[in-house]
Amino acid sequence: MDDFKPDLLVAPVMQHRLAPLPDFLAKGGTMGERVRQYDWSSTPVGPIETWPHSLRTAVSMMLHSKFPTFMVWGPELTAFYNDAYRPMLGTKPEALGRTFREIWSEAWDVMGPIAERALAGEASYFEDLPITLQRKGFPEQTWWTFSYSPVHDEAGDVAGVLCIVHETTSKALSEQRLEFLVRLSDRLRGLNEPIEVITAAQEMLGAHLATSRVGYGEVEETARYFTTERNWTDRTVAHHTGTHDLAAFGPEIHGALKRGETLAVHDVSVDPRTNSPEHLAAFAYLETSAVVTVSLIKQGRMVAALYVHNRTPRLWNENEVKLIEDVAERTWDAVERARAETALRGSQDRLQLAIDAGRMAVWEHETATDRITASPELNRMLGYAADAELDIAEVRTRYYPGDRERLSATAMGALKKGERFFEVEYRFYRVDGALRWFLMRAEMLLGPDGFPTRTIGVLLDITDRKEAEETLIEREAELMAALEAGSLAIFDFDHIKGRMNPSPRLSELYGYPPDHVLTIADIRARYHPDDVSKIIDKRDREQEDTSFRNFEWTLRLMMPDGAIRWVNGRGEYVRDEEDRIIRSRGVVMDITERKRWEEHQQLLINELNHRVKNTLATVQSIASQTLRNAGTVEGARSAMEARLLALSRAHDVLTRENWEGAGLLEIVREAMAPYRHERERRIHMDGPDVRLSPRMALAIAMALQELATNAVKYGALSNERGEVRIAWSISDGSDKRLHLTWSETNGPAVEVPKRRSFGIRLIERSLAQDLHGKATIDFALTGIICTVDAPIA
C-alpha cells in the first residue's frame, strides 16, 4: 500500500472534466455564426452557455444538414434554422429567435396543429401539402413535402420539434399544368370541326384559371385585324366577337404581338404600355383590367392569338403564362388538324362521288391486235367523246415525254419477277390540252410462252392528289425557309443509338460550323457552368416520369468568345410500349434578345416605381405642411393648389426631358409664367442655361413658387411699380456651384415676420437640404432678397 498514489488516478479524471467542450456551432455556415452572435438571453431558451446538451446536439445536427431544416425549442417554440432553409423565408424579416407562430402567422391554422402533435411526441410526414404563404408581399399558393419529428431533452421529455422540409411548388404547378394539358389534348382529339376545338379550349382554360374571358381568333395577312367567332366568359363580362383592330392598343403592344412576344399585363391602369387615356378606353370597353395575350407566329408572320381577360387586376404568375402559351399552341395545332381532316374528308367524299358516278375507268388491251376496249368513262377521262373509238396510236402520242417508256418498263419488270400485277403513275395530255396524272392498276394474262396475251385494268385520275403532294413539298420547303428566317433549329435525337440528327442551324446556334457533326457532348459543353446541375436534374425528372411527353426548357449557353446566349427548346419524347424514351425531337430558338428586352423592361419598371414614390413623398410633405400652417380652409386650398401647380409645371418640364434633367432657364420661365404680363416688364431673368438634376429642378421650382406667391400677396408684385429680378451664375472650377438670387425692389416696405411661415421654412430648410447647399432670406426694407448657393451634380 505504500506505493498507492491516489493523485495519479485523480489527475486524468480532472483533466477530462476541465477539457473544453467541442464547439457545436463550428462549421455551421452563415447561420452557425448568426446563432453564435445572437442575444439568446432575451429569448426563453436563455444564453448559449446554459443550453442543455440535447439542445446543443439538435442545433448542431440542424446546422450541419444540407437539407432545409427548421427547429423550434421550448413551449414558446423559439425558432432555429440552417443555411439551406433561409431562402424559404422569402422577404420575411429575420426569423431567428422568434416564435414559430409569429414567423408563419398566415399559415398557423395548418402548421400549428402539426407542431402541437410533434410536441406531444407524434411524428408526422406530409407530401405536397398545399399551404398559402405571404413571404413575397402577397398571398402565394405553395406546396411542401416535410416531416415534423419530436426532439427529447435529457429527461426524455419532448422539448422541441425538428422539421426537414422541401418546397415542391414548382413540381406541383408543373404537374397541374401537364395534367390540364393532357385533359385538353384528350378532349380536343375527339373534335372534328375547328369551331368545336376553339370553343372547348376556351372553356377549359377559362374555367381552369377562374378568369373572366378567353378568346381565340385569327389575324389577317397584315397582322392588324383580329377576328374571333366565339369566346368564353364567366358571365361577369360581355362577349366580344367579330373583328378588332390590334392597332387600337398602341404601337408598342401591336409591335410586340407581331414579333410573337407574349403580352402579360397585371393592371392596365398602372402598366406604362396600357395606361394612356386612349388605351384605357379600349380596355374599359372590354371590361378588362388584366390581360395575357399569346401571339402565334407561323411562317414568319402573326396568324392567330389567344387572349385571357380578367375583370379586375390580377398578378399573373409564370406558370399561368406558360400554360396559356401551351394552350395557344395546342389550340392552333388542333384547329389545323381539324381543318386538314375536314379537307381530307371532303377529298374522300369527292373521290367516292367520282367512283359512284363512274369516274373509275375500266379498259382491256389485246396484245395480238393492239386494240383497246374502253368504257365510256375512260373516253371522258382522256377527253374524248363517250362513244368515240380510240385510235391507240394517237392515244400514245399524248403521254408526257418519257412516261410511256416508264409504264412499259414497269410492266416488263413485273414479268421478270414472275408477277402478273403492276401499278404505275404517269402523266397524260387530254384532248383539251390539260395535263393530268393517272394511276394505272393492271393484271396481265400470260400465254404459254410467258408473255401477255391480254391486259385488263382500271385507270384513276389522281391529279388532285399529286397536286396536293406537290403543294405539301412546297409547304415543307416554305417551312424550312421560315425556320431558317426565324432562327429556329430542328433536332431529332435517337436515345437508343445516342445519335443526334440536327439541322445546320442547330450547330450554328450552339457555336459550331453548320457542317459540324453535332453530338450531345458538344451541346452539353456549351451549358453555362452555373446551370449544369439544374439542367441535368430537370432532364432526369422528366425522363423518369413515364407520363411526361411534351417538354420545354430555357438554357444559358456559354459561347467560345465568352458571350452568353439564351435558347428556348420545345419538343416531345417518344416512348415505346415499356414507357422508355426512344426518341426526342423538337425545335430550338435563340431568345437572347427577348431576355435582354425583359431585363430592360424590369429596369424601366423599377425606375418608374422609384420616381412615383419620390413624387408622392413630395406631395405628402406639401399637404402636411400647408394644412398645419394654414389659417383657414380657403387659404389652405389656395396654397395647396398653387404649390401642386408649381410641382406640376416642373414635372412637365422634366417629362419633356424624359426625367433625365431640365434646363434652369426653362424652370424659371415656367415658374414665373403665371405672374408675367406681356405689357409689363416687372420680372427680370438673367443667367446662363444650365442642366439640373430632377431633384434639384423640383426644389428650385417649388422655391420660386413660394417667393412669387409671397411677392403677389405682400411684396413687389402687390403694387404697380414693384419689380423682381432673378439672377444666377455658375462658378468655375472643378466644384461647380449655382449662385441664384431673388431680389425685390419698389414694393411696399418690408416688415420682418413674427412667425416663420411654411414657405420660408421650405426655402431655408427643405430647399437647402434637397440642394445640399445653403438658402437664406433677408427681409431688407427695400424688398425681400433670397440667395441660394448649391453644388451642381
Output mean pLDDT.
Answer: 83
Number of helical runs?
Answer: 22
Uncertain residue segments: 1-19
Backbone CA Rg: 42 Å
- Classify the beta-strand content into a percent band: 25-35%
Helicity range: 40-55%
* Secondary-structure arrangement, i.e. CATH architecture of the largest domain: 2-Layer Sandwich
Globular, elongated, flat, extended or rod-shaped: what is the shape? extended
Total beta strands: 29
Number of domains: 5
Oligomer: single chain
Q: Largest sheet at a glance?
A: 7 strands, antiparallel
Q: What would CATH call the class of the largest domain?
A: Alpha Beta
InterPro entries: GAF, GAF-like_dom_sf, HATPase_C_sf, PAC, PAS, PAS-assoc_C, PAS-like_dom_sf, PAS_4
Protein name: Blue-light-activated histidine kinase
Domain PAC: 422-474, 551-603
GO molecular function, one term: kinase activity
